[in-house]
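Appendix C. Worked example: 10 kDa heat shock protein, mitochondrial
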Amino acid sequence: MIKHLNRTERTQRRSLSEHTAFRKFLPLFDRVLVERLTAETVTKGGIMLPEKSQGKVLQATVVAVGPGSVNQKGVVQPMSVKVGEKVLLPEYGGTKVVLEDKDYFLFRDADILGKYVD
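Step 2, the predicted output written as structure tokens:
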């Protein structure tokens, strides 16, 4: 018997498979794994933008967080961001990481410029 999945079931299964990728990768120390938001391809007026004219996206969603850095006294400094928060990244920097055919970036906690508050 073949069972066809509806849209919500497919989305749930896809999100579960994405979360298993992050279980396989855990950042060390004060590192933060982020997924950049996609660039706008259409303006508000409906004009399609070519890839070259699209700016670099500086907003990202935190996907995984390390435990924190250890100071000289041996105390673990807590991280300033949590999984799921939206953050502002510097224009340059970060290490590109490919997990299950998706691009992610690894930044130090101190390199993140700020976070967006809802």
